[in-house]
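User: Hi! I'm working on a homework problem where we have to compare a predicted structure to a textbook description. Could you give me the structure for the chain below?
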Amino acid sequence: MGMIVRRLMLDDIYAIGRNESWLSDMAKKGFHLKRIGRIFIYFEKGVSKETKYRIDIMSSKEPSLEQLDVYHDCGWDIVTNSGSFYIFSADEKSCTTELHTDPIEQGFSLLDLNKRLKNNLIIISIVMLLFFGLIFSSFFLNDSVFMIKGQFVQQILLVVVELYVFYSVIKYYVAIHKLKKSLLQNKAIYKTRQLIMKWTLEKSD
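Assistant: Happy to help. Predicted structure tokens:
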């Protein structure tokens, strides 16, 4: 086993096309994906290898053995996952079949996840309204100015944390919603990724 190195995760996991390209570039440099943490991505240092990656979003908790066998028969092996995002790899030179040959069908597979994220957004929006209601009411209903000043820093920190969580939920929902919409318009993720790489190469030339 080679040395494990970590790299800061600069992009969101749901930026599928960019992440697939980045992971392939890292493999060419000899860094092969092992697992994904909250902040860092962990690679195993080894020899340079041309590897292609695909990120598949699964609504269920984890793929079944039968599903993994089908993916393996198509040339793809599971590497790791981050929540609902499962990452598969294959040798660039091997003859593989894309995980999803029909973008529209893949888009329909995201309907359940999109619905759950929408419900989560509604729930957390209600919680945020109640939270801010309690925060602001403390300034008007509390007669002890000293107590308010003593709790001010703590309340500000709570507000910052809650706003960050709220922002993350919104960003996650919007990203999945846009991805679903794009797939339902018959725009394949891997084709978009190839177009981005082609544009980058032409620009550098």
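For your comparison, note the following. The chain has two domains: 4-100, 111-184. Confidence is low (pLDDT under 50) at residues 194-205. Good luck with the assignment!
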